[in-house]
Amino acid sequence: MDLISLFQQSPLLLVVVLFVVGLIVGSFLNVVILRYPPVLEYDWKKDYAEFTETPFDQSKPPGLVFARSHCPKCKEQLSAWHNIPVISYLILRGRCHFCQNRISIRYPLIELFSGLLAALAAFYYGFSWQLLSVLMLIWFLLVITWIDIDTYLIPDQLSLSLLWLGLFCSLFDLTISPAQAITGALVGYLSLWLVFQLFKLLTGKEGMGYGDFKLLAAGGAWIGAEALIGVLMVASVTGLLLTLLLAAFGLGQKKIPFGPYLSVGILVAYFTDGSLLDLLLL
User: Which Gene3D superfamilies is this protein grouped with (predicted)?
Assistant: First the structure.
């Protein structure tokens, strides 16, 4: 029996395997989330220096693939077993093996989110091309979410890649039709752009960033225009509730990234097959 037949005949095995794969990918996503913003900043500064013909001597930050992981506090290089998803965090009791400084809980959480969402996708879609496509959506949104939380920026390289990937998948009936994907991308971008312009006109302030427009456009390319209403409702309600909760504990902040809430809404809309708005209005 080949592997494909085995997965088709044993959905539970596929779910378990995808959970493990998701944990492993989540470990790599942690690297991307941590290292990609400095890499982008380095490239921006280097391009600016070349354009303005000014000296540039900043050291290049570690890359995403080949640079070995190290403790951000003591800078000691980590061994392979220190990077086992979730398990190494539990064995080390949340502390660095070398300097005993605390390791952020976000690292195993991102690995768990990646694993659980991958398992959920396997449960919903089985062994199929659609499973592969939704895994790409999940992992892109996880990276976008945490980079936005850290930097209040959504890199165009991520949001636009996700947009084009959604349009590409629509050509093969993996998500929605090409016409629905194109319309969804247009509506996604223009809806938030109009809200941004109206808010700026009334208050003189910018209420959100252009990265949010592009992220919602990318979401529209995956789920279509109609589902975006539900996405915005979920994003707005979850954003408001979390803001109130943080304020109640004295953890309020002036700047609130909207990308994480949009990402949640897009994933919920995708997994509910575009019927999110119907569920919200029940």
Answer: 1.20.120.1220
